[in-house]
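pinging the channel bc i need a second pair of eyes. not urgent but kinda urgent?? the chain im working w is below, pasted from the shared doc
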Amino acid sequence: MKRIVTKEDYIQSLKDLHHAVYYNGKRVEDITEHPGLRPHINAAALTYELALRPEHEDLMNATSHLTGRKINRFTHIHQSVDDLIKKVQMLRLIGP
């Protein structure tokens, strides 16, 4: 599996999944373009974009307790109070 680094990587990874997704009882052909799903996808994609900016690197990235590798905080499993605080700060940054 390719490592997700950019927002484009994230969006492409969703397309590559080919999951059967239904919205209001109707099958969604491309979740990355559906108006009901796109706001969430944009918010998650923004976390990858911001993680590449030096001024947000500490807030948007975390170290995986499973692999020891740097990962996107959006996908990180909280391990401490500091993790939770940074997650809230991250959500505030990407929120409207």
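so The first helix runs from residue 7 to 17. and DSSP finds four helices and four strands in the chain. — does that match what u expected or am i reading it wrong
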